[in-house]
Amino acid sequence: MTRVRSSTAPSTAFATASIGIAIYSAMDALMKQLSIDSGAYSAVLWRSIVGVVLLGSIHIAKRRRWPGRAALKLHVTRATVAGGSVVLFFWGLARVPMAEGTALTFIAPLMALYLATVFLGEKIRRGAIIGSAVASLGVLVLAGGQVQAHASTDHVMGSIAIFLASVLYAGSLILLRRQAQIADPLEVALFTSLVLSTLLLVGAPWLAVWPTISQLPAVGLAAVLGSISAMLLAWAYGRAEAQVLAPVEYTAFVWAAILGWLVFAERVSAYTVLGAILIIAGCLLAIRGPMGPGPQTEAAA
Hints:
Elements: H1 10-38, H2 40-61, H3 69-93, H4 98-105, H5 108-120, H6 126-148, H7 153-182, H8 185-201, H9 204-207, H10 216-237, H11 242-249, H12 251-264, H13 270-286
Helix pairs in contact: 1-2, 1-10, 1-11, 1-12, 2-8, 2-10, 3-7, 3-8, 4-7, 4-12, 4-13, 5-7, 6-13, 8-10
């Protein structure tokens, strides 16, 4: 059953989403370092488990009810899709500069438009086709930058992983809007972390690496930042159309460039900037008028 939302000004939802993106960008930097040190699988696993403990404690303290069958099914479906996206994203981010990796994720809204056509029967508009062409040119520019810089095999594989993560995340975006309509931000964030950690625990005996004592603060902070960001974005997407919130998503590129430079001494090439501009322009062309789910970082996961 759809939850009744109070009237919220678009500017309020926009500002909330902006804060959510900034917070999640900081978490990206922490997760990149953890992924470099211990692998993306372990980084996402421990962050998710800590997230469950934090959010679960609040859920219990507030004496919240267990979600109904329909809501639970949606939580499991979206968390499964988003989980694969998150692991691929951080695996790739450990191998490419943050700004470049973030720019590649901006193709998600275009993928969401086409997936909405397949699964929801929505009609593809001319703007979406033109926008796809422009954004595709941006991806080619990013690839050209890698060729020009003689990128290593690891770098190329990281870019491919992030591209695949964006495809999966596009599917989760279609589910996010529905999820935010039937559950509040706390429930969305909690069950995303709960399902994801449960799925990852299956392979933990063979794949997981225990965090070191020195890594525990970073794991805890990443979980806190990720949880706060997820709730802020779920709140915003539950109260404003995706087309209203879409532009704020692209501020992640600015945060990624700044944090990549400050934390990892990464330089942003002209190819990366031009590619990002073309991808963003393509997305904005595609989402003009009625649209499906808009772009979003991995924050909702």
